[in-house]
Every structure is written in C-alpha cells, then in structure tokens.
Amino acid sequence: MSKRQQSDSSELVNAAMAIEEELRKFEILAEEVRTGELRSQKHLERMGKLLNQVADCDERMVANMRSLLSVLNGWRDRQQVLAAEVNNRALELQERTKVYQSLMERFAALGQEAGLLSSHMQELASRTQKGEPVKAEDIISSLQMVNDRMSKVAESAGSLASDAEAQDFVDVARDAESLRQQLLSARNRANLLQQKLHPANA
To answer: Which positions of the chain have pLDDT values less than 50?
Structure first.
C-alpha cells in the first residue's frame, strides 16, 4: 500500500471513529434530555445546558460526516481516474493484439510458403542424387524458379522483420529475420546445385 493510500485510509478511519464517538455522546445526551426532570429551576437550567451540549455534539457530528464524505469523494475521483486509465490500456491492448495478429498471419503465410519451397528443393535434390532419367535443363529450370521464389519470400520476411521491429514486437522480428536467413541459406544451396548441373551458368 502506498503512502497516499495509507494516508487516505487513516483519514477515513479517523473520520468514521469520530462520527461513532460523537454518536455515542449524542445518544447519551439525548437520553438525558428525554428522561430529565423539569420540576425546578435547577432542572430547567440543567436541561438548557444539555440542549446546548446536544447542539454542539450535532455540529461536530455533521462536520465529521463532511470530512468522511470528502474522503469518500476523493476515493471516488481517484477510482474514476484509474478506471479511465485501465479502459485506455484495454483499448491499447485491443489495438496491439490486432497488429500482432496481422504480423503473425504474414509470418504464418511466409512460413508455409518457405516449407513448400523447401520440400520442392529436397525433391529436386533427391532426383539428382538418385540419377533418375531427368533432363538437366528441366532440373535447372525448376531450381531457378525455386531460387527466384526464395529470393522474393526472403525479401518479404525481411520486410516483415522491419515492420515487426517498428511495432516493437521483437519476438516476431527475430523469428522473421531467422526465416529470412534460412531462406537465403537454402537459396545458396539451390544456386550451388544449379551450378553443379550446369557449370556454364556459374
């Protein structure tokens, strides 16, 4: 609990205790007024003093109630300020979630395409290793297509990494950059295989 909260809590407790104390005094005085005798000058003078004491007690009780109300109003005002801040934070969370989801949708699409390209690359490599009767120019053409597509996907991954970093989503930026590096590495392997099949293109 902060010092301000402790101070407000003490004020609330003190005001409530003061009201309770004055109310007890008021009840005692009211009972004496209600049951007091009025059969002599002394009785009348005492009753007059009691009534003055009741009036004073009532004034003090009203003042204490005002103090209590002031503390409660302060708590209400602070609660409204905090509620507004929480609401603003909730709206910010909603907007940030939308941005994050958009970035992750882009990342998922790139990841899926990268996976397809990797599978295609593995299939081409397997065909060359097994010595299947496939024309070299067909393999080279397919590798070139994979190469070009990997370059574009790697570029998109780099763009995603930049956008994620600009939005301060460092985890998405890190994963997108990692994907970009993987794609560039795979593209280099595709280039090497292409050169191996067709040295004239080296």
So the answer is: 200-202
